[in-house]
Amino acid sequence: MRIVNMGEWPLDTEDERRHEPGGEPLWNESWYYDFVAADGSLGGYVRLGLYPAWGRAWYWACVVERDGGRMAVIDHQAPLPGSEDLAVAGDGYTASHETTDPFKSVRVRLASEELSLDLEWRTAGGVYGYAITPRYEVPCEVTGTVGGTPFHGYGERDHSWGVRDWWSISWLWSSGRMEDGVFVHGMRPNVGVELEWPAFQVPDGGELAHVAGFSATTEFDGDRPARSVLRFPGSATTVRPVAFAPVTLTSPDGTVAEFPRAMCRFTAEDGRTGWGWTEWHQPPGWREHVWDPGNRV
């Protein structure tokens, strides 16, 4: 299995475990698990975020259907997990997130009144470590059950740790799989300068490779993202939201940020299509940030 580490830290299987927390108020450690059916009929994501300085965790689980159905469990007051399977429980739900084979397989379970999940993410093509923050992304095949119904699809999981200020920086993050089996990923924070942004592709049955020169532009309908264009060297892929599963984020001092996340249709210039997830984070004053050079909205 290939590990592409763009950062300066030695990324290894121990990083699949929890990390010693920093002392900063906004230090957090989080795990994301995305999934989409191959035909785009259904998709979802789970996020567990630990906030030691606040003495609590955030737990999100959302499932959307292409025809408009949506179910969600959102808890911003979950107790910090005390076990290695990252088990959390709140009003009406229990959940666990277990690394069954480091960098190769994880299993996520959720039982609630609204929604149940029992899914496995198996690595497809390798592991990608970021350069600008302690974080890695893993493209995966996803199997199991959603609401007791068998599921087969694809997605991406990630793990990050360090200071994250949800209320100061906007960003775009996008991950999908095309119909020919190619995984694509790109991310850029809107910090007003151009850097080597995290981006990779994985050919069908091949190995993950960093893609240099990634950029993205976004058009909005009011505050809602209407489409983004992901530009990789020599190609561009248009991403259109199909079903939103947003979350509102409130800081301890009452500052509010919006987090519109959506299952999306991906369409490449050559006509290939696919499905995945995209997020456009909107902290206070996000329109004053340079979202996209040449396409400010």
TrEMBL record:
Pfam families found in the cross-reference section: DUF7064, DUF7065
Domain of life, source organism: Bacteria
Chain ranges of the DUF7064 domain: 166-284
Domain DUF7065 intervals: 13-164
Designated name of the protein: DUF2804 domain-containing protein
